[in-house]
Amino acid sequence: MALTPDELYRRLPKAELHCHLMGAVPAATFIELAKRNGQPLPSEDPDKVYAFVTFDEFLEVYVAVCDSVRTADDFSRVLYESLVADVDSANLRYREVMFNPSNHPWLPYPDMLDGLLDGARAAQHDRGVVCRLLPSINRQHGTSAAMELVETVLAHPRDEVVGIGMDHNEDLALPELFAEVFEVARERGLNVTTHAGEFGHPERVRTAIEVLGCRRIDHGYGIARDEELMRRASDLGVHFTGTWTVSVDYHGDDPATQPVGHMIRAGLDVSINSDDPTLYGVNMSTEWIDAARTLSLEPDDIVRACLAAVDAAWLDEADRRAMRKSFQAEIDALLVA
Ligand code: HPA
Ligand code: ZN
Predict the structure, then answer these.
(1) Nearest CA to ligand 1 atom 10
(2) Residues 6 or more apart whose Cβ sits within 8 Å of residue 36
(3) 25 CA to middle of ligand 1, Å?
(4) Candidates 62, 99, 260: which one to mutate for ligand 1, based on the most atoms within 8 Å of Cβ?
(5) Is the distance from the beta carbon of residue 246 to the nearest atom of ligand 1 less than 6 Å?
(6) H or E segment at 106?
(7) For residue 187, what are the contacts with CB-CB under 8 A and spacing of at least 6?
(8) 0.90 cut: is pTM over it?
(9) How distant is the alpha carbon of residue 26 from its chain centre?
(10) Which of 34, 54, 116, 290 could cysteine-pair with 39, CB 3.0–4.6 Å?
(11) Which contiguous run of DSSP H or E holds residue 335?
(12) pLDDT for 211-224, tens place per residue?
């Protein structure tokens, strides 16, 4: 008997390119770490502690989670727990996870890396999931801190650190401010991505592509308002790491105006990611299921998004080809199941 679409979406192998570690910390772990540190909590109920409505409130919760993660062991623990949870919920096979070193100024970057690599290795050993790391610029900390982060990343190279990202509130720090930072990063061999156009501004997506030189963009929803820019992004092979729930939060779920649906139907290269899964109470399976249902996407569309993530992963060519082959074999088996 053929799988239902929901079951298919749950069981498909998944590569995720847009996930913030501090947005993936289990609520119970956050409560435990925060209490240990004497941090105030809005609630000790795991179902209520991640409560926010606006983006500013979301970032306040996100920063509180960052405050709770203090030691290398904490980093190891939260990375391990988040990876294992998403192997269980979504058949996660590969994740490039973002973290903001400048949100944890008490821990030197090399110690942070040691903790993260420890958690990643343990998750790979126990559950086969592969994890790569994206130190991410908190754009609200300004351009000097951003340049300092790039220099720090370059001074402590690790095979598992495959590029850098940039996140937090784009209304407060436009992409063009970071032109020099991204130029240094690219010239010295780092892959680069940035959050841009999350709230619908096409010009910020254009700047991310044309000025920052990004060929991968997180969210990017503003592009749906600019047909010419969509053609240009398509010609340049830009990949968009979309998300479902976050896009609905800011753009609604009317299929006629939903940017994720518009981007997929326009043939842009789009993956569907969980972004901040525990903070939003989602995982990749629920994101794919909800997006497909609301946008009337077909299994072919979801399979295309699934493989688009593999193709846009910052892996060595041989590793990416091997992952694509194993994903394709698993997809073929699921489609005849
Ligand atoms: N957008 C911007 N910054 C973020 C996000 C996001 O979705 N998650 C964590 N930091
Ligand atoms: Zn994000």
Answers:
(1) 168
(2) none
(3) 14
(4) 62
(5) yes
(6) none
(7) none
(8) yes
(9) 16
(10) 34
(11) helix 317-335
(12) 999 999 999 999 99
